[in-house]
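Customer ticket, subject: "Can you confirm the structure for DUF2516 family protein?"

Message body: Hello, I'm evaluating your service for our small team and ran a test protein. I'd like someone to confirm that this is what the system normally returns, since I don't have a reference to compare against.
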Amino acid sequence: MAPLSLQILWLIQVAGVPVGIYAFAHAVTQRADAYTAADRMTKPAWLGITGGGTAAMILFGAFGGGGPGLLFWIAGLVAVLVYIVDVRPKLIEVQRGHNW
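Agent reply: Thanks for trying us out. I re-ran your input and got the following:
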């Protein structure tokens, strides 16, 4: 049986890639002007960040349990999570408008 740390990395990897795919798909479907209205980087920039982050998670997966590739995997995960927790809510708010 693998150590607990490897099991946790595996679980995060299994959950991280679908989240990255979702973030990229969400970035594709948003209007380009919503990014500037939300005072975030441009749509092409976020497409590159979410796509590159997802690719990094796939290419440098945590299944190996460490090594230099793990740094790229973590950077990819962080990039995708920044989009999910920061950019996505602002885009939704801008496109809906304020509900006062």
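A couple of notes from the result: DSSP finds four helices and no strands in the chain. The helical segments are 4-29, 32-37, 43-59, 69-96. Feel free to reply with more questions.
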